[in-house]
Design goal:
Length: 136
Amino acid sequence: MRALAWLLGLGTFALGLSLALWSLDQAFRLAPLTREACVPGPLPERAELWSNGVVEIPLCRRARVGLVLEGALAQGKGPYALVVEGSRVLWQGEVRGVREVWVMTSGKGTLALAFTNDLYQPPEDRNLFLRALEVR
């Protein structure tokens, strides 16, 4: 009887441990932005990214979107920017001076402008500015 209780307890412990490990794997799994519901909201007219960051553009529909970007150079390089919709990259590149970028959105994810290579070494400061946004 004791052996049966011991085996039953060991089996219960193994089942609980395997369930906990499976739950931990699910908890730390990265879900792509396309799984998130896009919630429409006011569109930003301008934005200033003084450090690495993201500007969310809650468009949530098919459209042709134009962004007027301006980059401040540091050490001879401009800010590196990405325009993404969910997990899909629509445009990426270096912004030197003023640059106009047009992308087509599908409406299946959140549209975002990301700045990824900030540098601040006084007197130089690499920054990205969204000067205008147009939706057609």
